[in-house]
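new request in #modeling-help
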Amino acid sequence: MRLSRYFLPVARETPADAQIVSHRLMLRAGLIRQTAAGIYAWLPIGLRVLKQIEQVVREEQDRAGAVELLMPTLQSADLWRQSGRYDAYGPEMLRIRDRHDRDMLYGPTNEEMITALFRDSAKSYRDLPRILYHIQWKFRDEVRPRFGVMRGREFLMKDAYSFDLDEAGLRASYEAMFVAYLRTFARLGLTAVPVKAPTGPIGGDLSHEFHILADTGESALFYDAAIEDVSRDELLAADASTIARLTGLYAMEEEEHARIADCPVPAERLRSRRGIEVGHIFAFGTKYSAAMGLSVQTREGEQVHPQMGSYGIGVSRLVGAIVEASHDDNGIVWPEAVAPFRVGLVNMRVDDGSVTSAAEEIYGRLSDAGVATLYDDRDERGGAKFATMDLVGLPWQLIVGPKGLERGTVELKRRATGERDELSVESALARLTA
Amino acid sequence: MRLSRYFLPVARETPADAQIVSHRLMLRAGLIRQTAAGIYAWLPIGLRVLKQIEQVVREEQDRAGAVELLMPTLQSADLWRQSGRYDAYGPEMLRIRDRHDRDMLYGPTNEEMITALFRDSAKSYRDLPRILYHIQWKFRDEVRPRFGVMRGREFLMKDAYSFDLDEAGLRASYEAMFVAYLRTFARLGLTAVPVKAPTGPIGGDLSHEFHILADTGESALFYDAAIEDVSRDELLAADASTIARLTGLYAMEEEEHARIADCPVPAERLRSRRGIEVGHIFAFGTKYSAAMGLSVQTREGEQVHPQMGSYGIGVSRLVGAIVEASHDDNGIVWPEAVAPFRVGLVNMRVDDGSVTSAAEEIYGRLSDAGVATLYDDRDERGGAKFATMDLVGLPWQLIVGPKGLERGTVELKRRATGERDELSVESALARLTA
């Protein structure tokens, strides 16, 4: 992508109303713009990150055997009356009346709708087990939206729902999603701490939250330091034993931790850090299937209410969480897995024919090799271009200038470490297209 | 994808409330389910089609130099007060009040929001020209939603917006989008007739609608038969001369046609058919930039309001339009470009070890070759499996049964023509992976 034709409004100044670093950097680096309280437009480079994360989440859901569909954003209030949640849900539910005075709402979650969809087509044990998911915009009318996309009102969530014949099946689905979550966060380069959670308004008796460690997190966590010893490779190869190991280690939110008289973790191994909740899974059994009349016939001919669970990941919130976890004084430092472009190509002198023809050739070759490249072909000073590249945080910067070209070289900079190498064009291309 | 683990609720009966064939087939083939009046959930196989179409639309927008971003579904009423459309827009606008009693709305279109976003960051001629687009859910509170996704209330639209310094620039952007539309519809296997349109509530003085010919279309069109002579290859290679040729040929909606005293087309070349509007483009100049205070500095230091246009494609409506254009008595006939899976693999006898091991091996090899395959591994009668495959409409069916296997063959059926070939497994695989 040529920056001269892109839409990347970066800002040098720190936005006054942004309290946390991810919010500030996402505004400054041109990822998002607020369009109303707690509602954001995703500018082109922000959308690319959002889609990368969405794709990792999708691949891990698919790998776990979940099947993607897409439910609408608006729902009928009648659906929520069937479960009894229409009146129970507080003012965070955005209630809407259409032109025919029908009560509707902007979905904050989809337990009711998926239960109704499944009820209307699943008839027997042969239709189970199933895990269905979608990635769709949700709305929660937060009283005080803040922290940018971390606590916005309109947000992108992946929510999956499992249907099983019995409790053993539900446990298997819950474990499959647990594994998918461990793999998802590991692929995103994040350390996620699973915390046993109270089940709250969704109901049920088994629930875990997944928290990313970050100083600006809204939750205070207490956990066994051994959790941090689980390696990325172990998480990518996670199975039931990984879950057993992780959930066997102490991890509590402050409120729950305070209630425990004797913390089982020795003081020297007890860590206290803040966390950002990015995932939440629930096994709630027959709560919705019973309330909404979903039943299937077993092999033996009995009618039973399927055992259900639900499994959420805050996809848009993850963008903020990753920035919280990965930035420095100069800007964002994207992990490769979610970077909006892999390479930032800087043309230091667009008015110099030989520099421009070299940069254009490199841009063409990177593009042909399928390397996502943001090419700064604007007529700007080098200093401004460097500052933009650091702020935007692409993993690699490739700098093409007149002095280097005289020696037949370009400069390759690794954003994460600041490390620079002077290389021939061919070596630089070989490294980036490897 | 194994059908035994998928979610594909097909129905043999014709749904009572569905008036047109695409609505009936989309319900029967398990593409969609209605969740409220004019609001649909996209079931897994429907979502796959929707995403294929979305991707073709996206590629052609990118190819035309448009840049993707994503605006939220909900908008502040204040934005629409700036353009004066908040009060002017009728009851199709879904008006919402949030918990703080702020007036909001579910976006039916995004001229205001994109103008405000562009206004807050574009400063000079160097920021122009630009075409920005997004693919996002919209809501129009139709008084009588009908025809399934063809006239739903919540629908997926691609809307692009162009910003140019002067009228010549606007004409160039308009032409670039016109070409993108011709290519998009040609790639989707559709014959689209561009019709000069009145500009209506969006305003401006140049506008075209794109109609797909189908007997159930809501518009009656009169056009020069020569429009149908433009070949797919010509459309894929479209440029300004293609546009000049097409727009030089007569094409009018009935209402406009009736107003014309002397139709310029000789009777033997005048065609009258019904059409489904799937795209609409507008050049409206400074209507929004002037009303909302968007201006940029020219090279000469003057402040000017950019010339704008907007360009919509009904992505979810296209699913219905394609089914209208491509089906037979047995079900849907997907064009290859948008088919949810390329191959339907039918295991005729799951209880027969040799049939199942052959089918499993074929499934593995198709999957490894990246051929999207729906594998019917259910314990069902062959007749039911054939009926499902015909209904669902994948381009190819590959049937593995005991009799053929004795002769070392499988059967390959082309859905569009019904043509069947008895082939060795290797020849069948070679044909499908070519």
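bot summary: Chain A has two domains: 3-328, 341-433.
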